[in-house]
Here is the input.
Amino acid sequence: MLVLADNNPIRHISRPWVNHTLIALCVVFFLFDPGWQTYGFTPAELQRVAWPGATAKPGDGLPALQMVSYIFLHADLLHLAGNMLALWVFGNNVEDSMGHLRYALFFILCGIAGALGEGLFSAVPEVPVIGASGAIAGVMGAYLLLHPRARVLVLIAFRFPVLVPASVFVGVAVAVDLVSALLPDPEAEMLVAWWAHIGGFAAGALLILVMRYRDVPLFQPAAIYPEQGFGRLGRFLLDLGPRQDATSARAGRLRQLWAGVKAVTFFLIIVIVVETFFP
Here is the structure.
């Protein structure tokens, strides 16, 4: 699943400047490529410090710089685009919940927690870790506790657009991370730092409890989110999120049926276009 957008307004800040800056920094680092050999995080370096009896070399120490710098490095354009899209969708509302400075600190702390998770439990500690996935998992963990009922637009199998509650998307993502971490595929382990995702998610879910504004509640109800959204595209989407309005059972079934017809039609159009022009 690929998350594309949400319809969740910000209420405490005028613009999510820090979130925009973090995205810009990741893009700049990607374009200028300072080198993952120097600024990537290698779990083995942390394991030498953390595990009793681990073999240490003279001069070894906690790789503090790399536990931050690795966040802003990405392997390829697809890696960058997927992460930045998720950060764009979820980051603005988390920044809105705590303010600019605390959000900047929150993001870095989640990235460090991701590095710690991967550093302590990685099955392939010699492979360097790069990417903002751990920090973004922390953002998603915070979003889950704040806005579980907010609708997010998700593209399933890169073809099927569906509106689902944020709790569904984030829950599936966390479940995949846990299963992949506990039942690792050696080849996949070389490509994805699952424990970084889990460490970042756990940190985000804990930090939001103490870093959010006092007037920002957890588990906000569906009634606070705009019912309409996503532009004209919204009328063609299958909406699996909770409804605000109370309607009769028959009217609700008819609306769901009509939404399904529109969604299937839209899906078929997308499939035809993709298969024709991008075989």
Observations:
- The chain is about 55% helix and 5% strand.
- The first strand starts at residue 2 and ends at 6.
